[in-house]
Automatic annotation (TrEMBL):
Source organism of the structure: candidate division WWE3 bacterium RIFCSPHIGHO2_02_FULL_38_14
Molecular-function GO terms, alphabetical: ATP binding; phenylalanine-tRNA ligase activity; tRNA binding
Protein name: phenylalanine--tRNA ligase
One GO BP annotation of this record: phenylalanyl-tRNA aminoacylation
Class of the enzyme per the UniProt entry, highest EC level: ligase
Pfam family, one: Phe_tRNA-synt_N
Boundaries of every Aminoacyl-transfer RNA synthetases class-II family profile domain copy: 110-317
A GO CC term assigned to this protein in UniProt: cytoplasm
Catalytic activity, as annotated: tRNA(Phe) + L-phenylalanine + ATP = L-phenylalanyl-tRNA(Phe) + AMP + diphosphate + H(+)
Length: 336
């Protein structure tokens, strides 16, 4: 028989055998049938190559090699596919009731808030939420923000009813309620939505989320504050994050301390995200002001405490790669 015909015949036979093997999964047997050293069909054909004339060798050498490679690859691939099917599709029982479809997931903000809550619960904090419609007293006065402070201005605050009822401008209002209504020791975190009189754009919204915390007890010092913030930031970012602390002014604390992390995008060399500073401010904190404690009915001669607060929206945007804050609150689907 002509050599080419034999090659074609072997190829056809192999394809038939491969089809059958795909059903029974016995790929090892198929391999042996064609490639066993002593009696494999393709092996025997290849063994004939040295016996051919020089001209035939040139012609059929590549053809034989091609046949061998094609068959081996076909067996290998079919075997892998077969294994995948076995794993993903074990015996299907069509009589079982169908599983309910799983749709939706937690909002990124909710995910982050829950992670943080778990972290602080582990360290003995309670999680407190409170009203979003607040009085001027709890939102400003008890936090050492005097009547003429710029933050109380109409420009920043959304009033529900002038002059006393407003949409809280920070979750520190929860802090002042907790300090007023509880006796130390106090360890509480307060996640929540806050409101400002701002026009929405890519990075600002008229409402956003804050995460604050407050600790009051005997003998609380800056050292406790710093250790808490350090542990927390390591948890939020990673354990080898570089951070620095700076003196800052906030009316409800004294002294105030801002915490920066080294920009994770440029490792401190400067980029658009950090506005070429190399550092990103992530959190404000400080020792609770003497007057704040006093106005909330806690004796500042006996107790001291610290508080911190941070915006959550930017953090969530960075973490999930969300370029526009309005996406966090918009109902529409966005495909990019
Ligand atoms: Zn940077």
């Amino acid at each position: 028989m002509d050599i080419q015909n034999r090659v074609d015949e072997i190829h056809l036979k192999f394809n038939e055998d491969l089809k059958k093997t795909k059903l029974n999964g016995d790929f090892d047997n198929l391999f042996l049938k064609y490639f066993s050293k002593s009696s494999g069909i393709t092996t025997l054909l290849l063994k004939e190559l040295p016996k051919l004339s020089a001209e035939e060798k040139n012609k059929y050498g590549p053809v034989f090699n091609d046949l061998k490679a094609t068959q081996k690859e076909a067996i290998e691939q079919a075997k892998i596919l077969h294994e995948i099917e076995q794993v993903s599709n074990p015996l299907i029982d069509l009589t079982l009731p169908e599983k309910p479809a799983e749709t939706g997931m937690l909002h990124p903000l909710t995910q982050v808030i829950r992670e943080m809550n778990d972290f602080f619960r582990y360290y003995g904090f309670s999680v407190a939420e409170d009203r979003e419609i607040e009085t001027v007293e709890y939102n400003f006065r008890k936090l050492n923000l005097p009547e003429d402070h710029p933050a109380t201005d109409l420009q920043d605050t959304l009033f529900v009813k002038q002059p006393d009822i407003l949409l809280r401008t920070h979750t520190s209002s929860v802090e002042s309620r907790i300090l007023t209504n509880n006796k130390p020791p106090i360890r509480v975190v307060t996640p929540g939505k806050v409101y400002r009189n701002e026009t929405a754009n890519k990075s600002n919204s008229s409402f956003f989320h804050q995460y604050q915390g407050v600790v009051v007890d005997k003998g609380i010092t800056m050292q406790n504050l710093k250790a808490t913030i350090e542990t927390f930031l390591k948890f939020l970012y990673n354990t080898d994050i570089k951070m620095r602390f700076r003196y800052k002014y906030y009316p409800e604390v004294s002294p105030g301390m801002g915490a920066d992390i080294q920009c994770t995008f440029c490792s401190g060399s400067g980029c658009e995200v950090c506005r070429y500073r190399g550092w990103i401010e992530v959190l404000g904190s400080g020792m609770i002001h003497y007057n704040t404690l006093k106005m909330c009915g806690i004796d500042p001669e006996v107790y001291t405490g610290f508080a911190w607060g941070m915006g959550l929206d930017r953090l969530v945007m960075t973490k999930f790669g969300i370029p526009d804050i309005r996406r966090l609150y918009g109902g529409g689907m966005v495909y990019e």
